[in-house]
Automatic annotation (TrEMBL):
Database matches in Pfam families: Rubrerythrin, VIT1
Keyword Cell inner membrane carried by entry: no
Domain Rubrerythrin diiron-binding: 20-156
Keyword set includes Nucleus: no
Protein name: Rubrerythrin family protein
Entries under InterPro entries matching the protein: Ccc1_fam, Ferritin-like, Ferritin-like_SF, Rr_diiron-bd_dom, UCP035918_rubreryth/DUF125
Segments passing through the bilayer: 185-205, 211-230, 276-294, 306-325
GO biological process: intracellular manganese ion homeostasis
Topology versus the membrane: Multi-pass membrane protein
Length: 327
């Protein structure tokens, strides 16, 4: 770990020979081609047209690698030194975001642009380090090619992903985000905010003990979060419904349920009963309006209808808790 953080055991770029620079360029082009194919594989199911763009970009990287190998063969022979980006201090690294599913199409496009900019800077610096005319020309040509990849990527995108297809992909990505995160998170926030109102305020008015009320709220919030999380995971594996990873949905709904309950439980850490109760009631007000906002923003529910439904439901549960606590 320390060697990765501080660069122990790594070579500096300035210490590399021309042969090692060529070897590093070969391994980098090979890795980038594989990354683009991994992006294509990750996008193939949901964004097949964009996947074709990354397949084409991978083929271009293969062409660069082949040119570099041929140059190395002419200058240094068949044996290519084993040197990769992780062996060079300060060399750019690739975060393994291609392993994440689902892949976000806009994130992948931005990452591909950054990959090309990094490769361009490498070839510019590498060209400065060589004295061989043919090597320098190839490195300069590759730098220009990497710089021009942004334009070629746009051309490929226009070919494979015309405007209407890009709009469809953006809509599909937004829908996936809503199904995987927004809907479970909203359900958790509603359950945590509303269902815990009755036990928390019942305990508050029954005992007038702020810390005891906090403990009830803490137990209710965590218990509800665990229950909702496991229920979400068990209810749907996401394969037929297209709702995405059950683990992600379960974690989202569990966290949001717990936070929804803790919002109006935490004020009872205040030792003064009426102060804590007033603060908790204010927190409840903002929680319910946040729920209404999310419903309006992501679920296209008219704001005032969402607000009426949420506030009415919350008020009824709140009243039930107060009445039970005063019984």
């Amino acid at each position: 770990m320390l060697s990765r953080v501080f660069g122990f055991g790594r070579r500096s770029f300035d210490s590399l020979s021309e042969q090692e620079i060529l070897a590093l360029a070969i391994s980098s082009e090979e890795d980038d081609g594989r990354i683009y194919r991994a992006y294509a594989d990750g996008l193939a199911d949901d964004f097949p047209q964009s996947a074709k763009v990354f397949e084409a970009m991978a083929e271009e990287e293969d062409g660069h690698r082949d040119s570099l190998i041929e140059l190395h063969r002419k200058r240094f022979g068949e044996r290519i030194p084993l040197i990769r980006r992780e062996h060079v201090r300060g060399y750019y690294e690739r975060k393994p975001d291609w392993l994440v599913r689902p892949l976000g199409i806009e994130h992948v496009r931005r990452q591909a642009e950054e990959m090309e900019r990094q490769a361009y800077r490498f070839y510019v610096e590498a060209a400065k380090r060589t004295t061989d005319a043919s090597t320098r020309k190839l490195l300069d040509d590759l730098a220009a090619a990497e710089l021009g990849h942004e334009n070629s990527a746009h051309e490929l995108e226009q070919t494979h992903v015309p405007g209407e297809v890009k709009a469809e992909e953006a809509t599909a990505e937004q829908r996936q985000f809503i199904l995987t995160y927004v809907q479970p998170g909203l359900a958790g926030l509603m359950d945590g905010s509303v269902s815990t109102l009755a036990p928390i305020f019942a305990a508050a008015f029954a005992t007038h003990q702020t810390f005891q009320t906090f403990l009830v709220g803490l137990a209710a919030s965590i218990g509800a979060g665990i229950s909702m999380g496991f229920t979400e995971v068990a209810s749907d594996d996401g394969k037929l419904s297209g709702r995405g990873s059950p683990a992600k949905r379960g974690l989202t709904v569990g966290i949001m349920t717990t936070l929804g309950g803790l919002g109006h439980a935490l004020p009872y850490l205040i030792p003064f009963f009426w102060t804590a109760t007033i603060v908790a009631a204010i927190v409840v007000f903002f929680e319910l309006w946040a729920i209404a906002f999310i419903q309006n923003r992501y679920m296209q529910t008219p704001f005032w209808r969402a607000a009426f439904q949420v506030v009415l439901g919350g008020a009824l549960v709140f009243a039930a808790g107060v009445l039970i606590g005063n019984a």
